[in-house]
Design goal:
It contains four helices and four strands, in the order H-E-E-E-H-H-H-E. A hairpin with a 7-residue loop joins strand 1 and strand 2. It has 145 residues and is α+β, with helices and mostly antiparallel strands.
Length: 145
């Protein structure tokens, strides 16, 4: 009798573990970047998947030298005075939203950063496809003309 209960619990454990990964994402690091620069910046997203779930997200932009947009204080001050937000704020916001919702379609746009929000959703959809395929190569996402 105890063997049957133990076997039943073991089977239930395996079934529940299989249900934990709704998206079928494979563990690893995945990245995507836009195909070109917009206003001198190329946006990118990196995620880490563990146990079929996104556990880390980085969203930002870099200039041709690799300098990170969220570090640019002059850009931050200028953008904040015009739009009410700035790269170090909205990049962290979008990343946190993805971690919470696990689905880019459920990430709300942040006023003042809607263009970056649109790119974030495109980039995130691309890295999720990469994670489902288990392909660690950086995916290039075409910019809209």
């Amino acid at each position: 009798m105890n063997k049957k209960i133990l076997l039943g619990l073991l089977i239930l454990t395996f079934l529940l573990q299989g249900c934990g990964s709704k998206t079928g994402m494979q563990d690893g690091f995945y990245s995507a970047e836009m195909s070109g620069y917009s206003h001198g910046w190329k946006e990118y997203v990196c995620i880490m998947v563990k146990g079929g779930k996104i556990v880390y997200t980085e969203f930002n932009a870099k200039d041709p030298s690799g300098y990170i947009k969220a570090w640019d204080n002059a850009y931050m001050q200028n953008m904040a005075s015009v739009t009410g937000t700035y790269p170090n704020e909205y990049t962290r916001y979008y990343a946190a939203e993805l971690l919470e919702h696990q689905d880019p379609s459920n990430v709300d746009a942040l006023s003042g950063a809607t263009s970056s929000g649109t790119n974030f959703k495109k980039l995130t959809a691309a890295v999720i496809e990469q994670a489902i395929d288990g392909n660690p190569d950086t995916r290039i996402v075409e910019m809209e003309e």
